[in-house]
């Protein structure tokens, strides 16, 4: 309506490609706007693979915008991040899923794997990402966890990622192995980090997508609320700063997000951990570690929003939150992301 439209602000996020973050202050929702036209090949793509094989890096490259956490630690993606890649004659909706977990230790792990499987329900094709640096292995487990009974019917592309880290001769051997011992439609070697081979993946996907009208406006690259990405930025910094189990025991929630016309954006974040000892580590001596974390997160949030931010971070203890199904659903692991 007129009131909502009058409260829309526009922020330039990147100069190339031309990207703008449109923030609806009334609902604290954001979308990234890419000015594109048309559309004919439209569909859903499930991106599967074991932890730390480069699923998030590939999804970010295809979308042209960082939407998913990328660190050198495995299992950093927890939510089924929906990214939308649109062009003049296509629209690909990418599900960047959590890595397939062999041993589920918490209720959180089980719910994340449920999200992986549900991503396949709407999929028109599947990308299975494997690490080219590792010994070739059977991908049946990844397909079984990811798409279940759909694995025999969905077009499947095996993406041999991190080709920049091995010699061309080794790439050829691994290509031959996967073509011989896996039941996939095609194998494409890529370097998601540098974008090499990404256009080949897009061409393959387009050949598998049905024709029809776009599911989303062509200027949208994500349907998640802005607060979701703010929380993900904080969580990424936790993974980068802390070691061992601490990052995996952390849940980040945006408690309050207030737009102030004549002042910095006010964002209040809580980090939930399971033990007092984890809280002590996060805060650090004299609060120094938490201050370092908050500063790093604030700078990235400001870069994302293109506005100055006042970020307030608090650490709370909720014992065994990863086993509490009610809390997990509240945090968005039931498949729905909570908007403020």
Question: Could you explain how this protein is built, in words?
Answer:
The chain starts with a helix and ends in a 10-residue tail after the last helix. The N terminus is likely disordered. Helix 7 crosses helix 9. It is globular and about 55 Å long. It folds into two domains: 173 residues, Rossmann fold; 105 residues, K homology (KH) domain (GMP Synthetase, Chain A, domain 3, 2-Layer Sandwich). The protein has ten helices and twelve strands. The strands form three sheets. Strands 5-6-4-7-8-9 form a six-stranded mixed β-sheet, with helices on both faces. It has a three-stranded antiparallel β-sheet with strand order 1-2-3. Helix 4 links the parallel strand 7 and strand 8. With 340 residues, the chain is of the alpha/beta class. One of its GO terms (biological process) is ribosomal small subunit assembly. It is found in: Plastid, Chloroplast stroma, Chloroplast nucleoid. It holds the Pfam family MMR_HSR1. One of its GO terms (molecular function) is ribosomal small subunit binding. Its main location: plastid.
SSE order and pairing:
Elements: H1 2-6, E1 8-14, E2 19-24, E3 29-34, E4 41-49, H2 55-63, E5 81-87, E6 90-96, H3 107-119, E7 125-131, H4 140-147, E8 156-161, H5 168-181, E9 186-189, H6 198-208, H7 226-241, E10 251-258, E11 265-273, H8 276-283, H9 288-305, E12 309-317, H10 325-330
Parallel strand pairs: 4-6, 4-7, 7-8, 8-9, 11-12
Antiparallel strand pairs: 1-2, 2-3, 5-6, 10-11
Helix pairs in contact: 7-9
Residue share in β-strands: 25-35%
The poorly predicted ranges are: 1-39
- Give me the CATH architecture of the largest domain, please: 3-Layer(aba) Sandwich
Helical region count? 10
- Residue share in helices? 25-40%
Assembly status: single chain
The chain-level structural class is alpha/beta
The counted number of beta strands is: 12
Specify the CATH class of the largest domain. Answer: Alpha Beta
Query: What's the order of the H and E elements?
Result: HEEEEHEEHEHEHEHHEEHHEH
CATH superfamily of the largest domain: P-loop containing nucleotide triphosphate hydrolases
> Structurally, how many domains make up the residues?
2
Indicate the radius of gyration in whole angstroms.
20 Å
Arithmetic mean pLDDT = 77
Global geometry: globular
Strand order of the largest sheet: 5-6-4-7-8-9
What do we call the CATH topology of the largest domain? Rossmann fold
Organism: Gossypium klotzschianum
Region (G4): 161-164
Pfam families: KH_2 (PF07650), MMR_HSR1 (PF01926)
Function: Nuclear genome-encoded probable GTPase involved in ribosome biogenesis in chloroplasts. Plays a role in 16S rRNA maturation in plastids and may contribute to the assembly of the small (30S) ribosomal subunit.
């Amino acid at each position: 309506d007129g009131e909502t439209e009058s409260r829309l602000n526009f922020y330039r996020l990147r100069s190339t490609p031309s990207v703008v973050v449109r923030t609806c202050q009334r609902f604290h929702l954001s979308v990234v706007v890419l000015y594109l036209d048309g559309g004919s090949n439209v569909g859903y793509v499930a991106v599967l693979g074991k932890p730390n094989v480069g699923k998030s890096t590939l999804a970010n490259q295809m979308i042209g915008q960082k939407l998913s956490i990328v660190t050198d630690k495995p299992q950093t993606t927890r939510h089924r991040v929906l990214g939308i890649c649109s062009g003049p004659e296509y629209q690909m909706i990418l599900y960047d899923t959590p890595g397939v977990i062999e041993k589920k230790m918490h209720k959180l792990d089980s719910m994340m794997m449920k999200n992986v499987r549900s991503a396949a329900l709407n999929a028109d094709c599947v990308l299975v990402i494997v690490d080219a640096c590792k010994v070739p292995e059977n991908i049946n487990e990844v397909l079984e966890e990811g798409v279940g009974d759909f694995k025999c019917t969905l077009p499947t592309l095996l993406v041999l990622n991190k080709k920049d880290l091995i010699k061309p001769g080794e790439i050829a051997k691994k290509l031959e192995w996967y073509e011989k011992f896996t039941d996939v439609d095609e194998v494409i070697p890529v370097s998601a980090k540098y974008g090499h081979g990404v256009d080949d993946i897009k061409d393959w996907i387009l050949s598998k997508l049905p024709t029809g009208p776009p599911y989303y406006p062509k200027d949208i690259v994500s349907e998640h609320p802005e607060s979701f990405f703010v929380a993900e930025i904080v969580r990424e910094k936790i993974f980068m700063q802390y070691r061992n189990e601490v990052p995996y025991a952390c849940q980040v929630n945006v408690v309050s997000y207030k737009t102030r016309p004549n002042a910095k954006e006010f964002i209040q974040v809580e980090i939930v951990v399971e033990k007092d000892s984890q809280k002590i580590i996060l805060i650090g001596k004299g609060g120094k570690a938490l201050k370092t974390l908050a500063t790093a997160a604030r700078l990235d949030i400001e870069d994302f929003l293109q506005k100055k931010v006042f970020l307030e971070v608090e650490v709370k203890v909720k014992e065994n939150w990863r086993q509490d199904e009610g809390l997990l659903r509240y945090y968005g692991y039931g498949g729905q992301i909570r908007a403020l």
